[in-house]
Amino acid sequence: MWLVWPLAGLAVVIITALAVLARRRGQATTPRLLAGVAAALLPIIGAPLAAIGLWQVLIMIRPGYATLFMGDPYHPQAYRWALGALTVTILLAWYLALHGRIGSECLAIGALVWPAALGVVTAWLLPAMSYYGSLAAAAAGGGALIALLLGWRRPVWSVVALTAGAIPGTVLLVQGGRALLGVLGIANGGAGVFFFVLAGLLVLPLVELVLPTDTEVKSAKSIMRRRSYLVPVGALAMTVTFASIGLAVDRFDPNHPRQDHLMYVMDADSGTAMWASHDQEPDAWTAAYLPDRNGNAEPPVPLPYGTTPRWQGPAVALPLKPPRIDLLESHSEGDGARVKVRIASSRGADVITVHADRPVKTAVIEAAGQPPVSSLPSYPGDLGSRAWPYELRFYDPPPDGFVLTLQSRDVGFPRLYVSDYTVGLEWLPGFRPRPAGLDRSPDHSSDIVVVGRTFRP
């Protein structure tokens, strides 16, 4: 890890030296270099967005993909190749459109700024990831610097330098992108494609070698330039081909079932119950429980894992006891309030969930025979503006429960919604077994029975 910052700094120095040398040799100007840096953002941003768009197209063609856990099909290989071909399409179309206007040297040098910047930022935030940017930029920049020093007096060695410089970063970034696709799935393919784009930016000088030069006859040059656009068109055709192969190979069947999300929720305060699902478009079996579209509206009661059901429907309320809550202590402290309660499941549930209607500064959890555990909650995005912004889950709670102490951020005591859940819907009245080719979603909130109640200190 001690090499993180030196390597990140070396990448910046090499790219800076490359830019300065290109200017001194008249192959680049400051405005064009800045234009190259800005232009490189187009594929860096556009390719991941295109990957997201491709997944949405696949969902339109095969709606069952929207319910896949982590968004990865059973046979994702062809789709991964499609994402690679899509990246090549965007990179080549971008480069062919701009290299004559901005200049090949300025585009190549400007493109290397972003891997170097990634290396610096990740050296600070995620040191283990820094090598993806800094090593790639340092190696490719070093190869380009050597090629520029050699000039075209020794063209073979210039090509060798460019190739040797591009290989380490290209291999590292492509492997990193493949790993991300394997972990995050095709639905989140934008992360892997981001790495693919950075890898493609490293080989821009080699792409330039196969394009027509200014010394060629004007008519021949024009013909070759027009023909060069057939390459991104071919890459786009390969994208469509691989996606079509994926659709043909990856089909739902009893051995590769479609997944659906369904949960039973009962509110002890109102004595009502409902079926709920966060599936975008439920299949026929699931839709039988869910006649009402909820959109992105918050549910009537807070649900575990911050689940926002897109569909819901009425269910029979069962005589299930909600969690027990005993107030042990409550008082105001400065600009907040402190509440201490004992919570236990009345039905031996698998998980107990606690929601609060206002942000919580700190939480302390105590269970018999275990040291107290302190938690500092985080509120990503707009979570703090939700009706129930705080959520805590206690897995496998002991029979006598646990003691929870909450310190709220705001004046006044927080209102709590405490629920517990068990896994399995098979015993519920009205539940019918899933048909062949359909299985429960591996999502933690699927096929659970939730029973909750409100508590006011």
What would you say about this model in short?
It contains twelve helices and 15 strands.
Give a topology summary.
Layout (H helix, E strand, L loop, with lengths): L3 H21 L5 H10 L1 H21 L15 H26 L1 H22 L4 H21 L4 H30 L4 H14 L1 H6 L8 H11 L1 H20 L8 E3 L2 E5 L4 E6 L6 H4 L4 E2 L17 E5 L8 E10 L2 E9 L6 E6 L3 E7 L6 E3 L14 E6 L6 E7 L7 E8 L14 E3 L7 E8 L2
Helix pairs in contact: 1-5, 1-6, 2-5, 3-4, 3-8, 4-5, 4-8, 4-11, 5-6, 6-7, 7-8
The helix-and-strand class reads alpha+beta
Low-confidence stretches: 214-221
**In percent terms, what proportion of residues is strand?**
15-25%
**Largest beta sheet: what is the strand line-up?**
4-5-3-2-15-13-8-11
Radius of gyration from the alpha-carbon trace, in angstroms: 29 Å
Helix content: 40-55%
Number of helical stretches of at least 4 residues: 12
Total separate domains: 2
Overall geometric form: elongated
Please explain how this structure is put together.
The chain is built from 12 helices and 15 strands. Helix content is 45%, strand content 19%. The protein has 457 residues and is an alpha+beta fold. It has 2 domains: 4-249, no CATH class; 324-423 and 449-453, Jelly Rolls (Sandwich), CATH 2.60.120. Helix 3 packs antiparallel against helix 4, helix 4 crosses helix 5 (104-125) and helix 5 runs antiparallel to helix 6. Residues 214-221 have low confidence and may be disordered. The radius of gyration is 29 Å and the shape is elongated. The strands form 3 sheets. An 8-stranded mixed β-sheet has the order 4-5-3-2-15-13-8-11, with no helix packed on it. It has a 5-stranded antiparallel β-sheet with strand order 6-7-12-9-10, with no helix packed on it. A two-stranded parallel ribbon has the order 1-14. It has helices at residues 4-24, 30-39, 41-61, 77-102, 104-125, 130-150, 155-184, 189-202, 204-209, 218-228, 230-249, 284-287; strands at residues 258-260, 263-267, 272-277, 292-293, 311-315, 324-333, 336-344, 351-356, 360-366, 373-375, 390-395, 402-408, 416-423, 438-440, 448-455.
